[in-house]
Design goal:
By secondary structure, the protein is an alpha+beta fold. Helices cover 43% and strands 19% of the residues. It starts with a strand and ends in a 14-residue tail after the last strand.
Amino acid sequence: MYRKSTLPNGLRVLTETMPAVRSVTIGVWADVGSSLETREQRGISHLVEHMLFKGTERRTARAIAETMDSVGGNLNAFTDKETTCYYAKVIDRHAPLAMNVLADMFLHSTFDPQELSKEQKVVLEEIKMYDDSPDELIHDLFLQTMWNGANLGDPTIGFADTIGRFAPDDLRAHMQRHYAPNAVVIAAAGNVDHDIFVELVEREFGSFAGGCRLPEAESPRTTPDRLVRQKDSEQAYVVLGTRGLSVRDERRYALSLLDTLLGGGMSSRLFQEIREKRGLVYTVYSFQAAYRAAGLFGVYAGTSPENVQSCIDLVVEEFGKLRDVRVGSDELRLAKEHIKGNLTLSLESTSSRMIRLGRNEFALGRQVTPEEIERRIDAVTAGEVQQLASELLADKQLGLCIIGPVEESAIAWNRDAA
């Protein structure tokens, strides 16, 4: 299913063939994200991503959009803490056109000063949008609180006081430092022939040359603390969490099961206890933020201000149960089947498979098959889940973040109690 080739210039090409579909998703990945930025450069990787859509030597921003729209394709990109990806999803026969557009953007963007000025305003509006979305902002605040002072902790989008500083030459210099063949992967999933695709990539990227220093994964010290941010809102938004595991940690399969048991679905302990039994929330779930050398694990809940203390107490109580009582065989089996079912459903999407190709190549240096994941999940024991809960969910390691009309003095929370 998976094939990999390396071009003479060092560029890696990965494919996963899905002959039963008519689409293909192509991603051009750069091994750079916000974790490589200094505080003064915060947001530059994300701004570069925006600017690659704003015109090349051959195409205006409108022409880029119209070219993809003319074949019913989808062109997009994302920047995260450790990578940047530009991708297109098209009908298989339009793969050469999609590859041409992506290569044009990646290699020949002009960074026009007027376009940059406009896009800086767009990003500032994006920052304001996040600030007005407390259910999203709370996750950024959790990372900043738990990794205080670390690059991984700061928001990928940047800050209002940094975005406006960048000039076109700053963006070009950033690309020159980090966008080189040895740090770029081109991945495709769908109805694609590997050898033909490699020829296509070589035609578009054969002249791409140079080299760069590959990033070193950041492994910040965890700094659990309490943060309460006042906001005039109907609900309060709460995240309570702890350190997690990196994507390279072999215990990640046990953590996936712990995550599923605690807050991974409608039958999870938190959903049943806090929503179904007590009606305190509409949304409650657990989550992982996992990177190459670090990770966090947390629980999110949105609730009325008067219910915040009850939600916190119930989450801490469920943490304690996972530490103290080994999960039963039926509950563990249900969690395993839940994970395997979600994995299978995700594999029906060419986009999700392309993203798996890129992330696995950068994080692990190899592809992890669905069959291997299922074997590793099935092999996890109840004892391993309990041991991991005991290690990660100790009260003294917990951090708490709240946004809403809640007074900090009203929150009774002592993480040193245990």
